[in-house]
């Protein structure tokens, strides 16, 4: 190794590439989250060690010199190789460390994930699992797109940008208040029309329920749209109306509250998704494997 190469630091190469990309020292410093003087010092030291001028400074910013252009090309290659090295290392240690980031909505976090995570931790205790709850599956899918989650729970069918597996089919039910006069397994439209209705306020759930209620021959009154499932259930307990919720979101059904099916069945298909055509770590595949083998669910790939 020559004296010059032993002096070159990665921080200097990052600073050089950042200035070349942004055209000035101040913006490069903001991008690197360091001070402008630190960027200036890193490039000045690199130029001194190499013995050449890499950037032409002026009132209109900083621009690579001809030799600077060639060296910046090599600097980018070095930084890309370092990224590749880091990815290879992460893949190798995937089952001995790292993490699995999960995006989900509340009913999945409450009723599905705890048992699966416990089973996963038994097999892979060194892999951290983080959960981010969202109010709607649309937000889960956006988290996958933006790289904030490795896998997520969503409604099926999903778009082709995701690889998905069906997890379960969750039917919508009606919760009747304790004051309901009779016990029934299924309610008819006329009986449902006698109650003020309480439904979730999330866009997808609200739209799905409203569209389904159009099958009724009787006028139905949606009196409340509420965001939290637990609040909806509490309102039913207090006799404020009847609620329409997915079964998982309604559980556990409080004593005295009746749960019955809709006059015409309605269901949501819950699946697990990863971003298609994306390199996943062994930890993610291991979690999917545990999820698929769970005795509580019968998963099948969605074509």
Automatic annotation (TrEMBL):
<keyword id="KW-0804">Transcription</keyword>
<dbReference type="InterPro" id="IPR005119">
    <property type="entry name" value="LysR_subst-bd"/>
</dbReference>
<feature type="domain" description="HTH lysR-type">
    <location>
        <begin position="8"/>
        <end position="65"/>
    </location>
</feature>
<protein>
    <submittedName>
        <fullName>LysR family transcriptional regulator</fullName>
    </submittedName>
</protein>
<dbReference type="GO" id="GO:0005829">
    <property type="term" value="C:cytosol"/>
</dbReference>
<dbReference type="GO" id="GO:0003700">
    <property type="term" value="F:DNA-binding transcription factor activity"/>
</dbReference>
<keyword id="KW-0238">DNA-binding</keyword>
<dbReference type="InterPro" id="IPR036390">
    <property type="entry name" value="WH_DNA-bd_sf"/>
</dbReference>
<dbReference type="Pfam" id="PF00126">
    <property type="entry name" value="HTH_1"/>
</dbReference>
<dbReference type="InterPro" id="IPR000847">
    <property type="entry name" value="LysR_HTH_N"/>
</dbReference>
<dbReference type="InterPro" id="IPR050950">
    <property type="entry name" value="HTH-type_LysR_regulators"/>
</dbReference>
<keyword id="KW-0805">Transcription regulation</keyword>
<dbReference type="InterPro" id="IPR036388">
    <property type="entry name" value="WH-like_DNA-bd_sf"/>
</dbReference>
<dbReference type="Pfam" id="PF03466">
    <property type="entry name" value="LysR_substrate"/>
</dbReference>
<dbReference type="GO" id="GO:0003677">
    <property type="term" value="F:DNA binding"/>
</dbReference>
<comment type="similarity">
    <text>Belongs to the LysR transcriptional regulatory family.</text>
</comment>
């Amino acid at each position: 190794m020559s004296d010059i190469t032993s002096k070159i630091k990665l921080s200097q190469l990052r600073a050089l590439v950042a200035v070349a990309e942004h055209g000035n020292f101040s913006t490069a410093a903001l991008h690197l989250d360091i001070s402008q003087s630190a960027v200036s010092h890193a490039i000045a030291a690199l130029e001194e060690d190499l013995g050449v001028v890499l950037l032409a400074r002026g009132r209109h910013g900083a621009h690579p010199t001809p030799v600077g252009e060639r060296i910046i090309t090599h600097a980018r290659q070095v930084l890309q190789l370092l990224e590749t090295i880091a990815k290879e290392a992460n893949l190798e240690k995937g089952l001995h460390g790292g993490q699995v980031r999960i995006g989900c909505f509340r009913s999945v976090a409450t009723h599905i994930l705890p048992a699966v995570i416990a089973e996963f931790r038994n097999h892979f205790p060194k892999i951290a699992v983080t959960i981010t709850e969202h109010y709607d599956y649309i937000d889960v899918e956006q988290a996958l797109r933006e790289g904030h989650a490795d896998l997520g729970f969503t409604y099926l069918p999903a778009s082709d940008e995701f690889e998905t597996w069906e997890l379960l089919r969750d039917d919508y039910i009606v919760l009747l208040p304790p004051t309901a006069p009779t016990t029934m397994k299924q309610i008819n439209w006329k009986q449902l029309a006698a109650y003020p209705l309480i439904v979730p306020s999330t866009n997808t759930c609200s739209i799905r329920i409203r569209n389904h209620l159009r099958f009724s021959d009787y006028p139905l009154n949606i009196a409340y749209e509420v965001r939290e499932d637990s609040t909806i259930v509490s309102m039913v307990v207090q006799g404020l109306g009847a609620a329409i919720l997915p079964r998982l979101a309604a559980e556990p059904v409080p004593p005295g509250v009746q749960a019955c099916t809709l006059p015409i069945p309605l269901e949501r298909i819950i699946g697990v998704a990863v971003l298609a055509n994306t390199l996943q770590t062994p930890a993610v595949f291991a979690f999917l494997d545990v999820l698929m083998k769970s005795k509580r669910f019968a998963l099948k790939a969605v074509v």
